[in-house]
Specification:
By secondary structure, the chain is mostly helical. The chain contains eight helices and four strands, in the order αββαααβααβαα. The protein has one domain.
Length: 230
């Protein structure tokens, strides 16, 4: 009996050591593999989508004044600021015409919808590029230069991050991404709080397998134009 106990204890100890080594190996390899995939895919997708981006930019410029590209301050890993690049989907004077729509502090919490139906700020071309997710194609540049990853919590603006409370640190513990759990699970029909909780769940579950699954489901959601408010 005593001998069996020693054998079981030794086996258990060996399993713990193997699991610890596997965890350590994964912790070292995953970031490198993830970055490699980010660089290869973002460069490929950026080149492949270049004609679409340029055509959309032309349409945006023909419909409304201003730069067809939109650069906005966002917060990356650890709260590091960077400029995200998107195709502009709103009128350039939207902040002056609709200041109340930018007063995020009035919500006092994350229980609000970031995108509303019939948003007066969105141009006709912008409505199309948003539905097809064309407006986010320039995000691949942010991935290529290392500000973002293909998969990760969406990069937040400073004004809204102040409402995150206890979720802030975990949300900022990884690189933001082009897509994440919230993008494939409701998207615009989720409250901001629901989106944040879903993307935080990704932080705890992230693996290369999870990343690949998210990318495949994102492609499906984009093709079908699912869960995007007009």
């Amino acid at each position: 009996m005593a001998e069996n106990t020693r054998v079981l204890a030794a086996a258990s100890s060996a399993d713990e050591i193997t699991e610890a080594r596997t965890t350590t190996f994964s912790a070292r390899v995953y970031p490198m593999l993830k970055r490699l995939v980010d660089v290869i895919l973002s460069a490929t997708l950026l080149l492949a989508s270049a004609p679409i981006i340029l055509f959309a930019a032309l349409c945006i410029r023909l419909e409304s004044k201003g730069n067809p590209f939109f650069f906005q301050l966002r917060l990356g890993k650890g709260g590091k600021p960077f400029k995200i690049c998107k195709l502009r989907g709103m009128y350039t004077d939207s902040r002056d015409r609709f200041p109340h729509l930018y007063d995020y502090a009035r919500n006092h919490s994350l229980n609000f919808y970031f995108h509303n139906d019939d948003d007066p700020r969105i141009t006709k071309v912008g409505a199309i590029t948003r539905r097809l997710s064309i407006d986010e194609l320039p995000n691949f540049w942010n991935v290529l230069v290392g500000d973002m990853s293909l998969v990760g919590p969406r990069p937040e603006i400073p004004e809204v991050l102040s409402l995150y409370g206890p979720y802030r640190d975990k949300y900022l513990s990884v690189k933001p991404g082009v897509t994440c759990f919230s993008k494939i699970t409701g998207r615009d029909h989720l409250t901001k709080l629901e989106s944040v909780l879903l993307d935080i769940a990704y932080v705890d579950q992230r693996t290369m397998t999870t990343d690949m699954e998210v990318l495949v489901k994102t492609f499906s959601a984009v093709v079908l134009g699912r869960d995007v408010r007009d």
